[in-house]
């Protein structure tokens, strides 16, 4: 997207990448874009948009991720400083918003408990049928020309417990910064 997120009267280029990076580029009197800010998310970005969403006067970047999460980056200051010895008082609007969010959270927690109880009851009945849930997998297997390696990226809308990679030829697994996996090697039976 292109949006004036910096408030300087010139639109910046907002980029959301498959590796989860959000980048803001400016064109400061040159033909080449200059990276001004970046932020890393833990999953690929499906869509990005700039605009005023949450509070008047504070622009935001909204990014939708592969699993459906919506993440916002705002220009609103997070911390407010009070004078010496002053207590920071929340406006009535902010107190109402916090109260509303707490009520919504409690309601959602009650719904989750009710659904868990329903599931427990149905799974213990004699007519219960178990099935594996269907989910889509976002996979990429790309060649990195710099070090002649391949990157395998797997994303699903649920936690990944195990990934099995089987190969007919010997392979070396390289560790990368974004990797949180524990690698275990085992030899295959040739049969």
UniProtKB/TrEMBL annotation:
Record domain BBS7 GAE: where: 133-190
Name this polypeptide is given: BBS7 protein
Assigned keywords, A-Z: Coiled coil
Residues covered by the BBS7 beta-propeller domain: 1-75
GO cellular component: axoneme; BBSome; ciliary basal body; membrane; neuron projection
Coiled-coil annotated residue ranges, if any: 91-118
Organism the protein comes from: Oxyruncus cristatus (sharpbill)
Coiled coil in keyword set: yes
InterPro entries noted in UniProt: BBS7_GAE_dom, Beta-prop_BBS7
Swiss-Prot/TrEMBL GO biological process terms: cilium assembly; intracellular protein localization
